[in-house]
Amino acid sequence: GREDVPFDVFLPNAIEPWFTIKDTGLGLSKEQFETLYSTYFDSTKTSTNAQDGALGLGSKSPFSYTDQYNVVTVHNGIKLNYQLYLGMDGTPEFDLLSEEETDERNGVELRVPVKKDDYREFEEECYRVYQWFTVRPNIHGGSGDYHYVREYETETYGGCLLINSLGKRMYDPGLYVQIGNVLY
How does DSSP classify residue 161? Predict the structure, then answer.
């Protein structure tokens, strides 16, 4: 709902050992959250090419790194705090930790715990991934010595932008395709 407004990314550190992404978009109601986070291969983006995504996997992607994380959503004056975790059979589950009225702006905040040895890698990947976004996020924390660097050659082929990376930090040299904000 606010595609032109950057979201915020908070990099992990010793005091706050988690990776956080926070937007000020539409937020999710209780029903929207519980449908979105309990369904695979269905998405609010399925019927549009104007947004990245479409398989309903992005909301569960933190499970590729950890077996629990938190999501806070604010929607029309209601703030919901959820903990998501892998159940005994390995399937994603969630618990509503709190529900309260608030005057906070709508939005969603995702918080993923990060192992100390992975802080630097999260920082490097953050800059590598977000450099391709049309509206780049505000990045907070980290070492401060990474910046958005685009070193590449481009070519258009069949309506897609082909990118040959020359950068040292972002990828091994090779051929990549950018679709929306995502580089493949």
Answer: E
Alpha-carbon distance of 50 to 114, in angstroms, equals 32
Per-residue pLDDT tens over the stretch 20-58: 999 999 999 999 998 887 766 555 545 555 555 554 666
User: What is the model's pTM?
Assistant: 0.78
Q: Other CB atoms closer than 10 Å to residue 62's CB: what's the count?
A: 21
Task: Provide Rg for the chain, Cα atoms.
Answer: 18
Give the DSSP per-residue string, 12-68: --SSS-EEEEE--S----HHHHHHHTT-SS--TTTT-SSSS--SS-GGGGGGGT-SE
Confidence of residue 98 (pLDDT cuts 50, 70, 90): very high
Token pair listed for 158: 């069949």
